[in-house]
Design brief:
Layout (H helix, E strand, L loop, with lengths): L3 H11 L4 H8 L3 H9 L6 H11 L3 H5 L14 E11 L14 E5 L11 E7 L12 E6 L9 E6 L3 E9 L5 E5 L8 E4 L7 E10 L5
Parallel strand pairs: 1-3
Antiparallel strand pairs: 1-2, 3-4, 4-9, 5-6, 5-9, 6-7, 7-8
Helix pairs in contact: 2-3
Amino acid sequence: MVKFADMFTYLRKRKGLTQAELASALNISQSTVTMYERGKRKPTLEDAEAIADYFNVDMNTLVGGQLEDSKPIISNDVVRLPIIGEVAASYDRVAVEEWEGESIEIPRSFLKGHPIEDFFMLRVKGDSMYPLYMKGDVVLVLRQTTLNRSGDIGVIRYNEEEATLKKVEFVYGEDWMKLIPINPEYPPKLIENEALEECSVIGIPRMVIREIKD
């Protein structure tokens, strides 16, 4: 599991910011940023939510551990969602959308007021989105046919059957879309012109469920 300090540092560098610039953007001191990156301090729940919003990542991915003032989530109001398929973390995987029996139980509060029908679960294959999403992760996906902005991460279907979880860049009104892995070992993929007609957004990730192995 990726530690908060490593993820925080990675996200800052990926955005091309200095510690001072990030501190100014988050309205915190540069010394706090330094302590975060050295693992000498963890954010409060409120600060972690602000950091996750700024970097457009989910809390589960960002924290990787317990917050200073967080408490275990205990709830009897839960829902069970089937894992209906797999999300490719490479471009040559085919989406499988048939439930094979595996399911996961989560607190209803994770749905943020949405009906359960608005969500589905998919399992990540490969490591092209490491360290935000790892092989074996189960992603809670909110059904959505558009992305809120260029640079967001979405579940994209293309070539009729293939699906992938990627950062997506685009310009409104132009006939292209770029699928960008987070892992620099994988190249981006440009989809344009006629090929774009077979490409569609099918959802956006809202939460990552990750098994912690010894």
